[in-house]
Design brief:
Helix content is about 45%, strand content about 15%. With about 350 residues, it is of the alpha/beta class. It folds into two domains: about 210 residues, D-Maltodextrin-Binding Protein, domain 2 (3-Layer(aba) Sandwich); about 120 residues, D-Maltodextrin-Binding Protein, domain 2. It has a five-stranded mixed beta sheet, sandwiched between helices. Helix 2 packs across helix 4. The chain is globular.
């Protein structure tokens, strides 16, 4: 049997490679170009210097992993270095604000969970920018289904068993990001079943996984890239699939929400995605070129294809009309569910 950690080794290599690209660009002085130069350049010359992608999730998350593999492909396709910079926290607004305040020249991009773009205005009393009007969506990778896992010594092996257990004993649930689909699912699950969960918020799958492996929390969910080491070592085990109605090729025996008997929009309508965006005002020619790169990545890049498969992400990215149709459909679903559950973090 192929271990999950073996399946994700290619992702780890891409992470190191892309960091090397960033360090090389910095040491060679590419980052030292005058700020006014980029805005004066013609769209036809883009790109001709390093591109910075700001990830809104921590290292080890599906957002970070996919972003690094995308960065590697951008370098291969467009011939310029890409630096990945992680700025997690505040429902993605730390990363978002940094990008919105950057020049709209195609050299600073945001890579974030699209749920956080929808959720920030609902969850936070104040957002320093308008996610709809200050950012331009370029493309996204739908994340499909991901595993929910439990601590190895928790005596449950399915979501139904977890619900029954949580009716009798306290259970702590790690949440990889405030406003995530996982948080909404667990909150709705408490409302539907009477189970009692204490939600513990983290800035990404990585730190949540460390606490889960240490036995500090009971339950978690997230990308296979982030959870593989814990599953392979036996520190925790997968019990359920979240994030959609599709099966996971790496963990084919896990049930989806519908298969386990749970129905409703919280379980089936809150599809997650890792989305690339640019500041408002970025030239359309740049947006179109980046969207074409995203489309090509799922066809031409063996590493991206492997990453999408290993993380349970969809093999066809969202761009163009499909991207905007999904935003129009899914963002309101996140916001409506959040309001109905009366969630707010500050």
């Amino acid at each position: 049997m192929t271990h999950l950690t073996q399946a994700t080794q290619g992702i780890s290599r891409s992470r190191r490679d892309i960091l090397k690209l960033g360090l090389a660009a910095s040491s060679s002085g590419v980052l030292g170009l005058a700020p006014g130069l980029a805005s004066a350049q013609s769209d036809s010359t883009w790109p001709n210097k390093v591109i910075r992608i700001v990830c809104a999730q921590a290292t080890g998350s599906s957002n970070d992993t996919t972003g690094r593999v995308l960065g590697e492909f951008i370098t291969a396709k467009l011939g310029v270095p890409v630096i990945i910079e992680n700025r997690p926290g505040a429902v993605g607004t730390i990363a978002g604000d940094n990008v919105v305040r950057s020049p709209a020249d195609g050299y600073t991009l945001l890579f974030t969970l699209h749920s956080q773009l929808a959720q920030a205005p609902v969850l936070l009393k104040k957002v320093p920018y308008d996610p709809v009007n200050d950012l331009v969506p370029i493309g996204a990778y739908g994340t499909g289904s991901s595993p929910a896992v439990v601590r190895h010594d928790l005596p449950v092996h399915s979501m139904k068993e977890l619900v029954e257990y949580a009716k009798k004993k306290p259970v702590s649930v790690g949440n990889y990001g405030i406003g995530s689909s996982w948080q909404l699912m667990i909150t709705q699950l408490m409302k539907d079943t009477g189970a009692q969960f204490t939600i513990v918020n983290y800035r990404g799958t990585g730190p949540m996984t460390l606490d889960l492996m240490a036995g500090n929390i009971d339950v978690g969910a997230g990308s296979l890239a982030g959870l593989a080491a814990g599953i392979d070592s036996g520190k925790f085990r997968p019990i359920h699939l979240i994030g959609g109605s599709s099966k996971n090729k790496v963990l084919p025996n896990l049930l989806t929400w519908e298969e386990a008997g749970f129905t409703g929009p919280a379980y089936t309508a809150l599809m997650e995605a890792n989305m690339l965006l640019a500041p408002k005002g970025t030239p359309q020619a740049v947006i179109d070129k980046l969207a074409a790169v995203i489309d090509a990545s799922a066809i031409e890049s063996e590493r991206m294809k492997a990453t999408l498969a290993q993380l349970g992400e969809m093999d066809k990215p969202w761009t163009g009309d499909v991207l905007h149709a999904n935003i129009k459909k899914i963002w309101p679903a996140f916001q409506q569910m959040t309001r109905s559950l009366n969630l707010q973090v500050g």
